[in-house]
Write a structure and sequence with these properties.
alpha/beta; Rossmann fold; Alpha-Beta Plaits; 2 domains; 14 helices
Length: 376
């Protein structure tokens, strides 16, 4: 049984964040339970792209600052690091406020680089996964995800944040390798999280995102900090607070199928304190591909699943969707049109994820629209 600790926090002012996080971690035995003097500690925030904190795309810098201070007090040597999929790391670090945090505290802020094989946990379904060398050499990892919805995986919380240790464009390669199978993609995330084994996961859910996350949703106030030693237990607890069942979330569904979904208990502030903030959150509706037999998924991919399409009215012709596409299915024409080869498109929706103008819409296939109606 894993205990997930909850703490209400409504503002990001430095003193309130530090006080709330100290109380949260002290309830778990204090930072000394997780970090020993002299240990090098990777602080792994969500740094998806170069967006300011108020867009709620990335972990708020005050959360990272407070956790870094607690690690320093425990005698640890923290460093902030991530591997954005497309934007230059220096630009991301500056825009998100991470450079300022690192400069103030005198700690490193660096890009995760140099992929090396991860020693896979027993029971892993993927036998060779490469992650950044810094993640492997760190004595401890403190995982600092953001509470966001996700157009492909419903939610991105503790487990998915560790996918960020996969170096840059290799994330897109994994999207291409797993294709439409969200269950297989979820298995990959589970294997990475269970193999990296972060010492502590602290969720920034003070201000999060609903709708078409992880990059183009709508900011929403949740007022939540959550912490656990097991990121999967934390994800299950937060999904429950949002009113989602296990089978609603591909990651939790995969963990249940594999028999690795942990039981959890809640401690700290009452779940009732978050009931209003968690009510009627806009959760992206996924295609019902898991209802199609695996042998017919190829047909679901080519004919049935939602197709990404350009919204020419909002598109700024930046070309990020073309650059990130793992299937090389998109081209930017001279007149500004995005041409998509749907025969190559794998419906990973990376294009929607990185689009800074929210200019990728979706067109759902007829049969999956019918399946969605049946699922209700």
């Amino acid at each position: 049984m894993t205990t997930v600790f909850l703490r209400q926090l409504n503002f990001y002012d430095a003193s309130s964040v530090l006080s709330a996080l100290r109380a949260l971690v002290d309830a778990m035995g204090g930072m000394g339970q997780f970090v020993s003097p002299g240990e090098r500690v990777l602080l792994k925030p969500n740094l998806l792209s170069a967006e300011p904190p108020d867009r709620c795309v990335t972990t708020h810098p005050e959360i990272v600052r407070a956790v870094a201070r607690l690690v320093l007090e425990a005698g640890g040597r923290p460093f902030i690091a991530d591997s954005p999929g497309l934007d230059r790391f220096a630009h991301v670090a500056a825009k998100t406020g991470m450079s300022d945090v690192a400069r103030e505290l005198g700690i490193p802020c660096e890009e995760l680089t140099d992929p090396e094989p991860l020693s896979m946990a027993e029971g892993s379904l993927f036998h060779r996964v490469e992650v950044a060398r810094q993640a492997l050499l760190a004595d401890k990892i403190i995982n600092l995800p953001k509470l966001k919805t996700h157009a492909q995986m419903v939610l991105t919380l503790g487990v998915k944040n560790l996918f960020g240790t996969v170096v840059r464009q290799r994330k897109a390669e994994w999207h291409y390798n797993v294709g439409l199978d969200r269950g297989r993609f979820a298995d990959l995330h589970l294997d990475i999280a269970r193999s990296l084994r972060p010492a502590l996961t602290i969720l920034d859910g003070v201000e999060g995102m609903e709708g078409r996350g992880p990059g183009n949703g709508t900011p929403r106030h949740f007022g939540l900090l959550a912490a656990a030693t097991d990121p999967l237990a934390l994800d299950a607890a937060v999904a429950g607070l949002l009113g989602l069942a296990t089978d609603d979330v591909p990651l939790l569904r995969a963990a249940k199928r594999r028999g690795v979904l942990p039981e959890h208990a809640l401690a700290g502030d009452s779940p009732d304190a978050f009931a209003e903030a968690m009510r009627d959150v806009h959760i992206p509706a996924l295609d019902s591909l898991h209802l199609i037999p695996r042998g017919l998924r190829w047909m679901g991919g080519s004919l049935l699943a939602s197709r990404p399409r350009q919204n020419r009215e909002t598109c700024i012709r930046c070309g990020k969707c073309v650059a990130i596409c793992p299937a090389k299915a998109m081209t930017l024409e001279g007149d500004g049109r995005i041409v998509i080869d749907y025969g190559r498109c794998i419906r990973c929706y990376c294009c929607q994820e990185v689009c800074p103008a929210n200019a990728i819409d979706f067109s759902k296939g007829l049969i999956l629209r019918a399946l969605d109606l049946l699922r209700r």
